[in-house]
Design goal:
The protein is of the alpha/beta class. It is built from 12 helices and 8 strands. Strand 1, helix 1 and strand 2 form a beta-alpha-beta unit. The longest helix is centred in the middle third of the chain and has 28 residues. It is globular, with a radius of gyration of 27 Å.
């Protein structure tokens, strides 16, 4: 399941946490987001993990930390360690009886406790929901909505494909034949449709033909060919927008990576070093690792490479935006239909 927000909850009372969690989960349903609460009752476990595997804490969006955790360790000790390793997620620091104390701790070193929110147990639920709503707002931007759709549909594709692979051989022969017939009919239909589109293409009808060819499926007219034509047209018009950034580079650096990632299950490895991708459940199980040295180049992208890819996407996005503005200013789309 895909979780929009991950919350680590460090508390010494199991009963109180369960009671509050039930209330919060009811309220969260109304926000249309999914939240993964990760409860921890042993503060020493947290401190040990922070020392041994600090990168694992970077995946949490919010931390809920009680003040009185044990005789030797208080909530602000955990917060200090979290900030020390560079985790800047929101933190709610709360206490049933020591709100004044924790407020004075935060106020005494405002820089060190930036992004720390304070509550007592009476205001706890309201404060938690405020932080969840704050973080959830970021999910509603267009890039995140687009990312959510790609991620979730890829997850669905992955489960569907895995189920078929896992269970096809267990079906009775008659059912397997039905499935093969469906596949054969689908392939036959697509072949006939493509043949029909190819026959209907008329190079003499220039205006109509250019519209129809841009609607052709990738099997007949691959995306890189569209960009090849696009680049030739830019050069013919003397437009230098992409002079330093060729469409061949765009295809190799961005569209191929997008196509690689668009229909696969995505995951970040345990050490938070690589973006991993899988086609089916068998690959997912086979490729689990204890350390990053076991990842092969066939199914991984380092987080540094991912950052470089994002930079390239942004750079090309600015160029395409510039070209769109030129087209708008020229009024080329005025009165043009689809």
């Amino acid at each position: 399941m895909r979780y929009d927000l991950r919350v680590m909850w460090i508390e010494d009372s199991d009963d109180w946490l369960k009671e509050q969690r039930e209330v919060l989960e009811i309220l969260i349903e109304e926000l249309h987001v999914s939240v993964d609460f990760h409860p921890v009752f042993d503060v020493q476990e947290v401190m040990t993990s922070l020392e041994a595997n600090s990168v694992g804490f970077r995946g949490y969006d919010i931390f809920l930390i009680d003040y009185d955790l044990s005789k030797s360790t208080k909530g602000h000790d955990v917060i200090g360690k979290i900030r020390e390793i560079g985790v800047n997620s929101d933190v709610l620091f709360y206490s049933s009886e020591e709100e004044t104390t924790i407020r004075s701790i935060v106020a005494a070193d405002a820089a060190a406790y930036e992004g720390i929110y304070v509550a007592n147990r009476g205001s706890f639920g309201e404060r938690v929901m405020t932080l969840i709503q704050k973080n959830a707002k970021q999910l509603l931007s267009l890039p995140n909505i687009r990312g959510f759709l790609m991620d979730q549909t890829s997850e669905n594709d992955y489960v569907c494909k895995s189920y078929i692979i896992e269970h096809y051989h267990t079906l009775p022969e008659s059912h397997r034949q039905e499935i093969l017939e469906i596949i054969a009919q689908s392939i036959d239909y697509e072949l006939r449709r493509l043949q029909s589109l190819a026959r209907d293409f008329n190079p003499e009808k220039t205006d109509k033909s250019i519209r129809s060819i841009l609607k052709l499926p990738a099997a007949l007219f691959p995306l890189e060919k569209r960009y090849e034509i696009f680049e030739k047209m830019l050069n013919a018009k003397g437009n230098a927008t992409f002079q330093q950034n060729s469409m061949a580079d765009y295809s190799n650096d961005i569209t191929k990576q997008r196509n690689t990632l668009a229909h696969k299950k995505l995951d970040v490895c345990r050490q938070q070093q690589y973006l991993l991708y899988y086609d089916d459940l068998a690959q997912f199980i086979e490729r689990q690792c204890d350390d990053c040295s076991s990842h092969t180049n066939e199914f991984k992208m380092s987080m540094a490479e991912w950052g470089e890819l994002r930079d390239k996407v942004l750079r090309y996005g600015l160029l395409f935006g510039q070209l769109e503005m030129e087209l708008r200013q020229a009024g080329l789309f005025a009165g043009v239909g689809n």
